[in-house]
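Hello,

Our lab assistant flagged a job as stuck in the queue for most of the afternoon. It eventually completed. Since we weren't sure the result was trustworthy after the delay, we are filing this so someone can double-check. Below is the sequence as submitted and the structure that was eventually returned. Let us know if re-running is recommended.
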Amino acid sequence: MTATTDRTEAPELLATGHRRLLEQLRADGVRFLFGNPGSSEEGLLDEIARFPDIDYVLGLQEAAVVCTADGYAQATGRPGVVLLHSGVGLGNAVGSLYHALHRQTPMLVMAGEAGVAYDALEAHMSVNLVDIAEPVTKYATRVTHPDSLLRLVRRCLKVAATPPRGPVFLALPQDVLDQISGEPVVPTTVPDTRVVPEPGAIQSAARLLAGAHNPVIIVGDGIAASGAVAELTRFAEIWGAVVHGAMASELLMPWTHPLWGGLTGHMFGDGSASLVAQADAVLICGTYVFPDVFPDLENPFRPGATVVHVDLDPYAIAKNHPVTTGMLGDPRLTLHALTGALEEAMTDPQRHAAAERVHRRTVQRTAEVDRALTDDLGAGRNADSAPLRMSAVAAALAALLPDDAIVFDEALTNSPALTRWLPPTRPGHFFQTPGGTLGVGIPGAIGAKIAHPERTVVGFTGDGGGMYTCQALWTAAHHRIGAKFVVCHNGGYQLLKDNLEQYRQDHDDDPGAAFPPFFDVREPRVDYVNLAAGMGVPAARARHAADLPTILRTMLDHDGPYLVEAVLDDPGDTP
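-- returned structure --
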């Protein structure tokens, strides 16, 4: 990535808050500052140019800026640091901060403002930034004295990085940063929270779970944050339980594993509840039950079911529904201990029954995957004339991508086809949106590429979602960030159509009726090839499967960012 300006070191005698803030970030290993500049941060922006080891990643719109930092934080596990402009910039970023909050992204978001001295005047652009940020951050505060600047920066970084991780906000009045700061610069201390429940609690939970006949596991991003993928997989194998991801944005278990049951969904509670309705024992770890838009208000667990909930966030445990036992603990350490205790607690018949469940699931899952892949191949046989399908795009890309490629998935309705051909198998190689905020795919891929410049990164988005943050393409071109992008273009908001179909079925309301015309984006149809070119990113349009190998190879071989617009089979105006 190229630097935005030529830089020279600042004299050591400078000790304004602007410089001390950047020295603190440097002490904490911050290499990138993601931002869109404004006049109430002039002093800090001027000072950044004197720090050659902190690159300012310039974005043109704040929603895209935050999502780029989010992708970087996901790919590194370290807090992304963002600088916004006053209430206008923060307001533009709120939707992206909501995304970061719900996927527990470690992030420090700062916004400049004119100054504490001007509060009483209610001057132009004055607004309570903390009040704006509080609903969409883990912690929000404001600097009001130069000798508390660095302790607040460190507090914010600590809170952001401490599980359950999340975005935090710090308001920076320019008149405070203009003053001399006498605070020493010391690295931030992030507490080690890798605790495990005491042995008696672990053994008691294992005894509760050992005799299950139909066990189910519900997990979330706490698994990825803890590095517990291997421990979760081993526990599921010993217990013979299917695993589902709830509000998951990272790999929690290899998707090729027969016990992986997929994601719970995020719209309708009855769908999520059905996954545990017949379970006699449920383990919940690293999430809560259930994060749906329209959740089921009733207890989803059957009467008498054993429910064990493990999390580092005590608020998440039994948050919405009663559980049999709740344990505060790090997912990796707790699952490791629970696996050992379960092996000791299970009788030989129980072990045999668990092994049989794994065998049956393996046979079933293998048949399902083979059938789906065969159907995909059958649908794309006439590669020259048949409408392009996402399965063809994914299959062609799967044949070309290197083993260490990173996929950032915001394909949404096209994600099932994408992940059939590019199934996530390793931590750190797959990220996705958990839903709720559109426009994370393009900037997320850019952030991941900044984190791993040596690896191939491909971001997927839809023709609807891509419009939310298309400005990020300019950032990729400006800084020569070689992320690749695939826009799944079907001419409308297909997710809304799918959800409306479900709504009509649930309410017995004319399920065959035409969709509202404003679910389509066709007149005019967004031209992503020209849009990308206008942002400085070369692009190509794919209409037929036969064209894919050449187009995708060109994308991957290009030295720099590149976009492919995949014109997919348009489902039309009716179900």
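-- support follow-up --
The delay was a queue issue, not a problem with the job. The result is valid. The longest helix spans residues 348-379. The longest strand covers residues 107-113.
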